[in-house]
Amino acid sequence: MSRVPKFLALTGGVGGAKLGVGLAEILPPEQLAFLVNTGDDFTHLGLHVSPDLDTLMYALSGESNQETGWGRRQESWRFIETLRELGGESWFNLGDRDLAVHVLRTERLRAGMSLLDVTRALNAALGTRHPIWPMSNEPVPTLVHTAEGPLAFQHYFVRDRCAPAVTGFEFQDVAQAAPPAELLAWLADPELTGIFICPSNPFVSIDPILAVPGVRAALTASAAPVIAVSPIVAGLAIKGPTAKMMAELNMPATALAVAEHYRDLLDCYVIDEQDQGLLEPLREAGFTAIAAPTIMLTLADKVRLAETVCDLALQHHAASM
Ligand code: FO1
Fold first, then answer.
1. Structure pTM?
2. Is the CB of 41 inside a 6 Å radius of any atom of ligand 1?
3. CB 202 less than 6 A from any atom of ligand 1
4. Could you tell me if 278 and 302 are in contact, meaning their C-beta atoms sit under 8 angstroms apart?
5. How far is residue 128's CA from residue 24's CA, in Å, rounded to a whole number?
6. Which member of 166, 174, 199, 223 has the greatest number of CB atoms within 10 A?
């Protein structure tokens, strides 16, 4: 019987979803599943908002807002404008079309459905076909510790525009969370050939996933190589506050420092071609790394990077057999 290699991608929001689109273009749903950060989730205006799950769902369904990277295309903003006029809390921009997703998710969660089942139903309705699993059904809200005191993630990220200097992160109630059974079965599958850490923020997108009890151990125990793509290119984050956070945490804002952060997990690391000069220091530090184009502006860029990480996984997996 011929092998059908399977892959898992760990993602946060916008950056991760770009590679997700590339992977979903080249791999059918039987071969690719996504494990998504829900540390950014929060209850806002009485609604359960799951930004990273929605960013991936919209990206895979061709519904994403190309200008923002989050939210829906062809969006209108009558609700949030009206809320603002009425003196309501309007710092978090909920678009009219996006709002329907939050209302439905909230209603279903209140009726007792799990976040995983709600996510599955929403994705089915929007026509995405790949399994998308929240990192846990239980809420694990990220608390950002800053020089100005602790802040709930979206207050730090959107309301305060990542301005406060971060000092650390806390994944609240994570000890009570459990990963989805579907994930553990996928990781135990002998056909699992590659685990990809997408170019998402290591501290607030990937670390919350790794903090869910059992996830890190299951990733390590899997025979599949773990391959990360650096979210830092030439000392800058493609999107978001990763580089700023690294400076505030007294880490050099380099692709090498990200590799060190993932050290005990990584089998192979992909840095951008602009960072070729880091290949030697990475090798000296004990990492297996390659340089490739990682900036994803077009669909072709996303597919090319997806092909790169899949090829690496196939090579590493074959070599370890
Ligand atoms: N990000 C912003 O920078 N400003 C917003 O007003 C905003 C609204 C928003 C609404 C729904 C949603 O799913 C995502 C939204 N995001 C917004 C993005 C989100 O806060 C972040 O991208 C993620 O949490 C970080 O990955």
1. 0.97
2. no
3. no
4. no
5. 10
6. 199
